[in-house]
Amino acid sequence: MIQQSGYLDSVEIQVIMSMLKIIDNPINDIALITVLRSTIGNFSDNELIQIRIEDKKDTFYEAMCKYKELESADEKLKNKINKFLEEIEEFRSCKEYMPLDEFIWKIYIDTGYYNYVSLMPNGLLRIANLKMLFEKAKQYEKTSFKGLYNFISFIDKLKLSNKDMSGAKLIGENEDVIRIMSIHKSKGLEFPVVFLCGTGKNFNVQDLNNNAILLHQDIGIGPKYVNYMEGITYNTLAREAIKYKSKIEMLSEEMRILYVALTRAKEKLIITGIEKDYRKSIEKKEELLDTYKIIEENSKINKNIVQKYLSYLDWIELIYLNSAKRLENMLILKTYKKKELLKRLKDKPKEEIDFKEKIDKLDVKIEKELKEKLEWEYSKNKANNIITKSSVTQIKNMKLDLDENKTHEYKTPEFLKEEKELTPSEKGTLMHLILQKLDENVDYDIEKIEELIVKLQNQNIITQKEKEAVNKNDVYKFTNSNIWKEMKNAKEIQKERPFYINIPASEIYDEDIEEEILVQGIIDLYYITKDNRLVLVDYKTDRVNEEKELIDKYKIQLSIYKRALEKALNRKVDNIYLYSVYLGKEVKV
Questions:
Q1: CA–CA dist 301, 317 (Å, integer)
Q2: Strand partners, 580
Q3: Cys-Cys link to 55, which of 63, 71, 533, 546 (CB 3.0-4.6 A)?
């Protein structure tokens, strides 16, 4: 995994920092030219030369301002300059009141630069770099320093002091990549395959050998003795004690580190190391192990042998030699001579590459992939044109044609409507409300219906105009219907009950579509009679001449109500009625 460096020198950061500089101070030729030549300004080199030719002394910003006033100037170039300068002025006014991080994000979006860099090579990394600059600005806003000028100065100082920030990282903790890390950093992690490299390198003991004075937290100071008369130095007992103690502690720590390295692999551990004379080293180790086994008569490695060696490879070889039989199924030792490796690399056949043939094949492959992407069609394309949520009324009124592009009509807001008579739709809603408010325990006549309407007005449920629009005779007819008579003796009555139900789209659209539509609606009335029949009622105020006309119009709507009610109550609907206010009677469906 490669660490990204030179963050402040990346193209995308240079362009944005140049943009910030000219917003703060446009009389900065280098920053201005950088932005003009980028996609933000989109000026060509010839256009920039044309501006400079007209004014060779002033700053480039002043030259641009003068050029756009020239009568002989190119009209297209003048328009481009005007557009760019207006954009800069708008940003300059925004920076006065916007937080720095929000201001930088506004530049990204308004200039389109954020989307542009995403299409460049390594676009994801460039996007991550821009996000990182945004985060840096956010952090900077929380400090005591404020403002665009101070932020620009801070970034410039970082660059001059060679303390460039590291670039954004795209590799997460769980990415499938090769990771190069120290043993310390790998602590607590596990990987399928681990390479433990460079085990032949000796531990660093220079501090123990070269320093004139050694220090130890328990023993104290251990200096060398200096004989100025003889011109010689030699170790004191204190120094030797500290050197021995420090070496033991250092070796103990290295053992702990080696243990960490050896326990990171889940499936396979590959250990590599270089040794100058492998055979001689192995023979010497075998001799030492055999000697101590004879003396101690046990299978453990003597600590004096361990202390003698100062590399991981030596320790691993000692363990292998001491327990070769026990480890033969777990550990495989392979040795390679330097000459063999060099010869293997030298004898490796060189592959002759026909670049023209490869490029031709690549072009065909790219063309094929591009054609597949451009001609690809979504397998469920019909589902794109269906609504995912609807009301019962919309389904009833909808003209089901998937190939048509439908436009939506938006209602005029209530506060913009002129004061006028109630529409038929509003009168129908009003009648629904009155019928809903009727009390089944009351024996209504015209006077009691009048009292109910006045009460609703006093409670601000209806307005004066709505009160006047209510046809009391129509309400009275309903209280004399068979529905009302059954309601008065009903076991249970439910009014204005909302519902949601999923309906297969194929039932609504004349197409083979697997998706479902979420349908919402409100059931005007349902009740359970004293003989346990479930009755569904829907009020209608349509002006119709025949009952059949009403049934045909609301057949789909009632079937949805019936399905929803049966699903909710887990029982069958016994009777369905449409109560026609206009006809003054119930219509059995």
A1: 12
A2: 540, 585
A3: 63
Domain region containing 135: 7-160
- Structural domain count of the chain: 4
Same-domain status, 523 and 574: yes
Q: Same domain, yes or no, for 81 and 151?
A: yes
272-287 pLDDT, tens digit per residue, is: 988 888 888 888 888 8
Does residue 391 fall inside a structural domain?
A: no
Q: Model confidence over 304-356: pLDDT tens digits? A: 888 888 899 888 888 888 887 677 777 888 888 888 888 877 776 666 666 66
Q: For residues 427 and 429, give the distance between their C-alpha atoms in angstroms, rounded to a whole number.
A: 5
pLDDT in tens, 480-498: 888 888 888 888 888 888 8
End-to-end CA distance of the chain: 74
On whether residue 363 sits in a domain, the answer given is no
Asked whether the beta carbons of 528 and 539 are under 8 A apart, the reply is no
Residues present in the chain in total: 589
Strands 220-227 and 213-216: antiparallel
Distances (CA, A) of 362 to 357, 369, 370: 9, 10, 12
Distance CA 224, CA 240 (A): 9
C-alpha dihedral, 435 to 441 to 443 to 446, nearest 10°: -30
